[in-house]
């Protein structure tokens, strides 16, 4: 969460409480969280037709080729317009499938003008063989506009398979990957500054749990401005335990804000049902969906991985059971009196709120419940991934 947003919030909530308008204070905290959840993130995917753009977008969205809402793959591109693919769960995150760059007389600046360069937070330039002049021209134009771009070398599984078939005796996976990486870097280095060996990401959209897919996601996270990071983390595909961990940390970063609402609720006269007011079920159900552990997603995962027992491996009560008010009220009661010291410092600027943190139906209970639920659900996500694909690292 942005420090300037926190400061502004602090000011407005303090003023509302001093006026005695606790309802306004509550609305303000609520709006702050919803603003963060609705921050738009637009990612452009560009490259030649057939390079694997649409398949990559599906992998980023956690979708297989046959899933509902997936981008059509293996088809000749007919549109010259960018096609938006919203993330299936995080609606403010959109991946844009840009028209192919492989046309003769390609002019990078015209192309970027046409696709509205300004709209995108960053660019992914994909090639399934070597990077060519058009890719470099494009990167340079993007650089001029002070935007970031990333080079993705796609279909790595195919290179490995082909090489293994042709040279079964001398095949060495690591050597081949190093060679492909070096070839890519060499073809880019001549015309672009600052290209290092880790500037190129080798991916297979069919096996996103392998190669550089996770490192690519981690790099996006590191390089995104902080106010965009939250939605990006929520939108991560659950492809590795690292991605699950990143997503968990993203979700965790919002818990103090939900807890902040709880602290305000506890000083608003006449409000008592924390669970309903804060829609804790909405948040916890959100965790379950975000990690792909809702019934529909688990069914899909079972189908894709050919394992029919994934549901039985789940341990969290929030994954196994329907998340009802009764379940949550029971969980909150168990935590009566829990104190979250973090909220005290988070809210040190409003003494009355700091005191409310240890009220009977407290923000502490709310914090404890959310933290515990998130932890359990993320653990189940790792178990499901490991069981489905056998490689969670
Ligand atoms: N083996 C392999 N094939 C891929 C991969 N990504 C895409 N393809 C295939 O390459 C072809 C073109 O992919 P598509 O995503 O439609 O490319 P686009 O024209 O750039 O959108 C399709 O037949 C895909 O199945 C990959 O990571 N591995
Ligand atoms: Mg396509």
Question: Which keywords apply here?
Answer:
55% helix; single chain; Rossmann fold; 2 domains; alpha/beta; six-stranded mixed β-sheet; 393 residues; 19 helices
Commentary on this structure:
This protein is an alpha/beta fold and 393 residues long. It has two domains: 3-37 and 238-389, no CATH class; 41-234, Rossmann fold, CATH 3.40.50. The protein has helices spanning 3-18, 22-37, 53-60, 108-114, 133-144, 156-166, 173-189, 213-223, 226-234, 241-265, 274-278, 280-290, 295-305, 310-313, 317-320, 325-334, 341-346, 351-356, 363-389; strands at residues 41-47, 83-86, 93-97, 122-127, 148-153, 200-202. It has a six-stranded mixed beta sheet, sandwiched between helices. α4 packs across α5, α9 (226-234) crosses α10 (241-265) and α10 (241-265) packs antiparallel against α19 (363-389). The model has no long low-confidence stretch (mean pLDDT 87).
